[in-house]
């Protein structure tokens, strides 16, 4: 059969299957990410239906998916919001990093992955999935809640931290010498800082290059800029994801609002391919040995992430029910965890990191939405209400 025909047949079949999985996930009110990743497991080496002809397109599409996912995250925030969040929530950011990165680092060390593998796993366990968390808040009708700004602040600070963590990790993962690594990291951090500073003072100037009223031009131009900057960022050892995130931050006003609205279908399309491709890279036969340690680490880090959200909400004087909602909403890991684990592949590190990270992330993404609904159940809602009444009585004394 003609090669192009095979590519079209394989790709069309995959996309139709993803459409059905999406509908099923929405019907049972679960995140679609684990379903996409499971589909990828079936399509990769060792899977039931390995694909070959369309794999190259899916690989490139997954890279574009990363760019668009992080571009859209960046469009939700402005440089001023980032700076404000950084100034007012510095202690929360530090607490978040210590509580959630430490278990991953320790687990990597105990499994014999060395300092680099441990550093990678620390990042995997550190960062909440912004996409899943925000989608949860929306689906559960919690966007107007008092604790929601606290949750968003934690997500924003983690996204910003990744702008510095990923360049460091990239240099460490490829085994750069101390001098070369320091230069690479210094350039990366300098570039990130410069872009944030430029966006802070001259963000409106960048937005003037695009027309909010010409939708076709806006979609092509903004996505083109994000892909261009992602490529340049990769060349100077900054993650393409971070480059796209910074492009999103730099846009403002009506341009940012229109871009966020109109690019969403494109992001969803390539985002689905991104999650599928991560599954394709994981051999299903490598998952069973990772189940027990991944489950143990997931239990520990979902607990530490809950504690992060709870303490952050308490610091902002949110009531006990809101503290629980904030903590449980932060438990799923996702986009950045996959990106970080992917660095292990590109750097030729211990290949066990990838199936372990995939198994761990699947567990948190499946359990996270279930846990997030617990504060709305009658029994826990009553318990939390009683705890709040006792706290109010204590404070009045």
Structure description:
With 397 residues, this protein is mainly alpha-helical. The chain is 79% helix and 0% strand. It has helices at residues 3-27, 33-43, 55-75, 79-88, 90-110, 114-126, 130-139, 148-173, 178-207, 215-235, 240-250, 253-262, 264-280, 291-315, 320-329, 335-346, 353-372, 378-396. The chain is globular, with a radius of gyration of 21 Å. Helix 3 (55-75) runs parallel beside helix 11 and helix 8 packs across helix 9 (178-207). It has 18 helices and no strands. The model has no long low-confidence stretch (mean pLDDT 82). The N and C termini lie far apart (81 Å).
Layout of secondary structure:
Elements: H1 3-27, H2 33-43, H3 55-75, H4 79-88, H5 90-110, H6 114-126, H7 130-139, H8 148-173, H9 178-207, H10 215-235, H11 240-250, H12 253-262, H13 264-280, H14 291-315, H15 320-329, H16 335-346, H17 353-372, H18 378-396
Helix pairs in contact: 2-13, 3-10, 3-11, 3-13, 5-6, 5-14, 6-8, 6-16, 8-9, 8-11, 8-16, 9-11, 10-11, 10-12, 14-15, 14-17, 15-17, 16-17
List the defining traits of the structure above.
single chain; 397 residues; 18 helices
Concise synopsis of the structure shown:
With 397 residues, the chain is an all-alpha fold. It is built from 18 helices and no strands. It has helices at residues 3-27, 33-43, 55-75, 79-88, 90-110, 114-126, 130-139, 148-173, 178-207, 215-235, 240-250, 253-262, 264-280, 291-315, 320-329, 335-346, 353-372, 378-396.
